[in-house]
Hints:
Strand order of the largest sheet: 3-2-1-6-5-4
Shape: globular
Strand content: 25-35%
Distance between the termini: 46 Å
Helix content: 40-55%
CATH class: Alpha Beta
Largest sheet: 6 strands, antiparallel
Structural class: alpha+beta
CATH architecture: 2-Layer Sandwich
Number of domains: 1
Number of helices: 4
Radius of gyration: 15 Å
Order of helices and strands: HHEEEHEEEH
Amino acid sequence: MHNLKKLNLDSLELNYKTVVTQINHLIEEENDITAILSNVSSALKETFNFLWVGFYLIKNEELVLGPFQGPVACFRIKKNEGVCGCCWKEKKTIIVPNVDKFPGHIACSSLSKSEIVVPIFKKNDVFAVLDVDSKLLNQFNVIDKTYLEKIVRLIEKKLT
C-alpha cells in the first residue's frame, strides 16, 4: 500500500513538473494577463481533471471572477469570506481537505469537496488568487501547494 501511495505522489509530482514547464513556455512571449490566466487555468484543468480551476482578481475591494475552467462560479467574494477571501486576507496558500468543515465556505458548486487557494502578488499586495476545487475529499497536499505556488510565481513575473 505504501509503495502505491509513493508511486501516486511521484506521478503527481512528474505531472506538475511537466505542466510547470509547459506553462512557462506557453506564457513567456505573452503579456496580456487575461490571456495568461485563461491558458493557465486550461492547462491545469486539462492536466489534472480538477472540478474547477480559475482566478479571482481584486477589483474595488472584492474578488471578482476572472478566467476559469469548470462549472459556473460565484461572481464576487468579499475579503475574509470563504476560502478565497481568507487566502486574500491572510496572504498565504490555504488547503481545505473538506470544504464542508471550513467555517464560512461559499458553496459555488455542491460538487466541490476539497480546495486549494494560492495568492498572487503584484508588488507586495495580493493581486488575485488561484482557486482549485476537487470532487474528492483530501485532494490537495504539499506537492500541489509547492507546484501551484511555482506556477503563481511565473504569473507574478508577468505582472511586474
